[in-house]
Amino acid sequence: MNRLRYSVSLSYEVMDPMADFLLNIEAARTSRQVVVAEQLTFPPSIQTTHYTDPVLCNRLLRMRAPKGRLAIRYEGVVDIDHRLDDSDQLSEVPVTELPFDVWHYLAPSRYCESDRLMEFAMREFGGMQRGYARVYAIREWVRNHVRFLSRSTNECTSAVDTIVERTGVCRDFAHLMIGICRALSIPARMSSSLDYGADPTMGAPDFHAVVEVYLSHRWYLLDPSGISIPTGLLRIGTGRDAADIPFAGRCCINRI
Questions:
Q1: CATH number, domain at 57?
Q2: Which residues form the Transglutaminase-like domain (predicted)?
């Protein structure tokens, strides 16, 4: 089990008389992730509404802020107990046996155009043995064929753009792996995390995008960019792609 302490500091300048915010920065509470302590700080005059998705466990914070500077800070201490299984025993689940709430992670989405990646996916991975070995091969292909380059892409960059340009940041690695998996009828989705263990020369600690793949009727986390320590992957938000769980800002991470 790993215990991580992290903090997120967000600062905005509200230009309009009122502005609405919807944030997903609090650590998710799951069977494998326990929030030991946390503190959320924001101006006392601002009213907030909290909501937790009953399926994905995403914790959303909604607020309306007046014109001027808005500072928000979240601090959390989280125990993470990742499930470790024998990868040789992990198999792909036939589409006819997938739970209905997993089906939509097979479909193309805003940043993961799996329909446009199908020909490539079948050519590169269609003949491989199904299961974790094929998913691992997809992860390794993305890691070895895409170069990590900060600020090389923007909010419009999709998986198809990444496979053409071969450069990107963590979310681009994640989108491409997700798109290829879906093109092969392997459910895949994105999770927002933290880049715990990343090379300090890459800059200050930051939010991080990783992939969840559905194998043997469970979701498993993988990091196609390879910049973080797998056992330190902390779950914040989960969605189809970055359109569901966008992130921006800086954070601080420490292992306790």
A1: 2.60.40.2250
A2: 162-226
Q: Are 5 and 215 in contact (CB under 8 A)?
A: no
- Angle between the 170-183 and 118-125 helix axes, to the nearest 10 degrees? 80
Query: In terms of residue numbers, what domain contains 132?
Result: 87-244
Q: CA angle, 208 as apex, 192 and 211 as ends, to 5°?
A: 60
Number of domain units in the chain: 2
Residues 171, 233: one domain?
yes
10 neighbors 56 (Cβ within 8 angstroms) = no
Are 212 and 91 found together in one domain? Answer: yes
Whether 129 and 203 map to the same domain: the answer is yes
Kindly state whether residues 46 and 94 are assigned to the same domain.
no
The pLDDT tens digits along the chain (256 residues) read: 889 888 898 999 999 999 999 999 999 999 999 999 999 999 998 989 999 999 999 999 999 999 999 999 999 999 999 888 999 999 999 999 999 999 999 999 999 999 999 999 999 999 999 999 999 999 999 999 999 988 889 999 999 999 999 999 999 999 999 999 999 999 999 999 987 766 666 666 778 999 999 999 999 999 999 988 888 888 999 999 999 998 765 556 555 4
**Last residue of a domain, which of 46, 80, 114?**
80
- Contacts for 123 with CB less than 8 Å, ≥ 6 apart: none
* Domain membership flag for residue 256: no
Residues 6+ apart with CB under 8 A from 100: none
Name the nearest CA neighbour of 185 among 134, 146, 230, 139. Answer: 134
List of residues 6+ apart from 132 with CB closer than 8 A? 87, 88, 90, 91, 215
